Every structure is written in structure tokens, then in C-alpha cells.
Amino acid sequence: MKLLKSALLGSAAAFAAAGAAHAADLPVKKAAPIEYVRVCSAFGAGFFYIPGTDTCLRISGRARFEGGYMASNSRQAGSNGGDTSGYQGRLRINMDARTQTAYGTLRAFVRLDAGARTGYSGIGTSGTQVRIGQAFAGTGVDSNGRDIQQVNVDKAFIQFAGLTAGRASSFFDFYAHDFEITGNTLGSDNASTNLFAYTATFGNGLSATLSVEDPVFRRTPIFAPYSVNNSPVAPVVVAYNRGAPILVNTIDTVQRERLPDFVGALRLDQAWGSAQISAATHELNVGNIQTAVPAGANVNLAHTNSVQGWAVQGGLKVNTPFVAPGDALYLQGAYGEGAQLYTGYSAFSGSYAQNPSTIQGQKFSQFFSDATINPITGQLQTSQSFTTVASYLHYWSPEWRSAFFGSYGEQSFGRGARLAQGAVYGVAGSSLISGPNAVGVPGTRFYQLSQALRDNYQFVAGASLIWSPVKDLDIGVEGFYTQIGLKSGRVIDADKNPGAYNAIAQINNGTFVPRTATQDSISQVRFRVQRDF
Question: What is the Cα 123 distance to its own chain's centre?
Fold first, then answer.
């Protein structure tokens, strides 16, 4: 029995050992580790680590509804004629990725804006956005000029060791309509441009930036009285007879992509507020004469040289918590030559054309051209502009706040520019240069009353009331008044005399006496509901 028991126990041990050996040879399936999203506190609230990396990401966005009303003086044919209301829905998506490195923080930030807009020109459509390919306009009978879908890569930049590269806000800007719903005051506000910049910090909030920026988003058209094959052109005298011009040719005024804009800014940020001085250069260029000069002509024309426009700006922001927590005051002024979008003189109407409508059915158009081509010398003459703006934000309570803002600016054209255009007008003939861009022959009644190249001014004043019942929700209304006017003289009232620019001969011989005006104005109101997250 003992022998049998020993044999059985031995066999069992052998089987157990064999089983253990076979089990050790089999693969073991282990559960994959679970990647949990971890909070990243290094860069503030809302950041989390991208699983498997040491990069922190914050995703945020915005939804907005906006409606508005602006009176219309006219129901004449054309975009927005007679429209008084407009609406839009907007979305924004932000992604902010940051990684800590031995050189400091490596950051990439992207923002996509999109929206559907309808109605009057102040809110529904934007010729400026269509011009630079950021909006798609409706083409239907009832939607043409009244309806657009807008998509904009608003931001897409990288920051590393003082460098900023990509699509970002211009470093020239300061106030940039910070306290406004509409952004209607005068002043530079280029929120989206392509740039490459370096910022040096010196401590105590002082920094200096040198930025190379895309010139396309700062262009205002060169004055062109008419077009050839849908291309804007400017007249230039190419032949004389005993000192009198007898032959006119045309220069292509479309600007080419050549030199970038160079921007420099010196900025101070401290507890009391901020201050900035900035400057920029902006190249103006045109093409060549469009057609060959006849053989034997007494040509007196060199190639049109490019010129450098420029602008300077100073801004101050003062925090005033002694009035109420959150209160602040902005003051800003800018001056430029051949760089009107840097002074922001056409902030409301935009610069998609040389005379875009500021007011629907307005009595006359403002001209915003950065330069004219002197038809006698064939060279560019820059325009001058300046703007000033003041804006104050006041918190009535933590939930209620208001902004009060106003601005004033002027645009002047080069000395003798209008007279020179008038001189060539008589040679080129009214069959070529007609309509609202016509200057007329100096000394005639039409020349005295035409709107083209008239020095002008613009004044804006407004206020808002915004309620924030919960964090990141704004429900507000804003109203503002805009006035445009001439610095001197009178012009034809195009609202009361819509066909006047087709009756030049009758105006000159006195058989038609048009109504005239020196200024025009309009009021608007906007309502907005906005949720940030």
C-alpha cells in the first residue's frame, strides 16, 4: 500500500509539474493601460494634456446672434438699396496648444470664424471680406449684395522664444475696437494678417516688436477714374503739342505683391494700464502703360516709381478701478501718408473700393484712395489721413456695463492731385471718364460740384449697454451716429439728383442746376447675444 500510495503521489506531482511547464509556455493576454485625460494646470484653467504627450491643449469657442437697424435714404437699384434691417449668426472655434521647453513655452494657436449674414450693408454683407476671399456672396435676384456666408482663418500662428509666425493680429494695432460691439470708430483693427515677428522683452512690462506683415490686407485702391476690360486704370499724358497735352494713355493701377509691410512697436504693460507707440511702412506700386505709344509721339513719361507709404500711432490705456472695478479708458491717435488702412479711416465702410458707401443712399461718396497718379508726371502722389479715438468702459455693477466711444478723422489728397486729374479729363474726354469718379474740367461748374478726390472728414459717436447675467454670456445693445462731410465746398446731392453724373454738359451750361450737400449722417443700432465657452 505504501508503495502504491508513493507511486500515485509521484505521478500526480509529475502531471502537476508538466501542466505548470505547459502553462508557462502559453502567451498571457494583459489588459492595455487606460489613458486618462489629465488636467494641465501650468497654463491656466481649461487646459488638459493630450494623451501620450507633454503638450497641453485648451479648446474653446463662441456662438453669437446679432441683429441691427440702419435707416436707408434710398430705394434705388443696387446692393442694399432700401434695406434697413440685417441679421447674422456667427461661430468661433479656438484651439490653444502649449508645451514647456528648455527655451520657454512653445505655443500654437488656431481660430476659425464663420457666419451667415443678411440684410443691410452695415451688417449683412461685406465687400471688404469678399474682396480678400473670406466671404461668398449670394447671387440670387433678392440676395445679391444682401447675403453672404463668411469663413475666415482668423488665427493660425506659432510662438516660440520671442518669435510669432503665422496668421495673427497686426502688431501695429492697439485699441482695435476693444470695447465695441460693432467696431465702427475710426482706427486700425487688422485682426487677421500673415506675419513673421520677433518680440524682445526687457522687464517691467516693456517690450519691443519688429514684424514683417502681408501688405494685401492693408491695401486701399489707387485712384482710377475708369476701367479697361474691367481693370482699373488711370490716365496719363504721353504727348504734348507746344506744351499742351494732346495724347492720353492709361496706367494699370492694380498693385502687385512685392515688398512686405514693416511694422515696429514699443509697448509697456503695467498694473495701471498699457501704452504703445507703433510705426509701419507700406509700399504702393502700379503696373505699366497699357498700350504702345504711337511712333513719333513726344513722350514725356518715365516709369511710375513705387513709393513707400508710412504711418505712426500712439495709444494709451488707463485702468480706472477707483471709479469701478473693471473700468478703463483708451486714447489713440494715428497719422499716415499712403497708408490709410493703418490709420483706420475707413474702418466702418471698408476699403474694397476707392469710394465704398458709408451710408445707404448717401448724398455723396467718400474717396479713400491711398494715392493718385499725377497724369502729367506719371508718378504717384500719396494721400494723407489721421484719426483719433477715445473709448471708456464702465461697470455699473458686476453684471451691467457700458462703453462710451467717439472718433474723428480726415482724409486729404496730394496737393494739386484733383486739379491735375481735371486737366487730363478735358483731354481724355468724358466718354472715357464719366460717372461718380469724374472730376471734370477745372473752371467749370461740374468741377466745382463733383465728388471725386474731395478732402473729407468723418465723425463717429456711440454707446452700449451690456448685461452678463452669468459668466461668459453677454446680452447687449449698441447705438452709434456717423457723419461724413467735406472739408470745403459743396458737391452734388446724389440722393436728390441720382442722374446728375450723366448730365455733365447740362450742369456746365446751366440748363440743369443740381441740389448740393456738404455732409450726410446716419444712426444705427445693434443687438447681440453672445456665449463664450
Answer: 14
Of 483, 464, 526, nearest to 69 by C-alpha is 526
> SS3 for 382?
strand
3-state SS class at 417: helix
**Antiparallel, parallel or unpaired: β 371-373 and 206-213:** unpaired
List the Cα angle 361/365/367 in 5-degree steps. Answer: 155
Do the Cβ atoms of 94 and 108 come closer than 8 Å?
no
Q: What share of the chain is helix, strand, coil (3-state, %, to 5)?
A: 10, 45, 45
Q: How far apart are CA 8 and CA 374, in angstroms?
A: 118
CA separation for the pair 118, 146 (Å, rounded): 5
Instruction: List pLDDT tens digits, range 193-252.
Output: 999 999 999 999 999 999 999 999 999 999 998 887 778 888 888 777 777 777 788 888
Helix, coil or strand: residue 183: coil
- Give CA–CA dist 113/126, Å, rounded: 15
CB 526 within 8 A of CB 66: yes
Q: How far apart are CA 80 and CA 83, in angstroms?
A: 5
CA dist., res. 257 & res. 214, Å (int): 9
Nearest to 349 by CA among 371, 367, 331: 367
Find residue 210's DSSP bridge partners: 198, 264
Through-space distance between the first and last CA atoms of the chain, rounded to whole angstroms: 84
CA-wise closest residue to 184 among 462, 516, 492, 531: 462
The whole-angstrom separation of Cα 494 and Cα 56 is 58
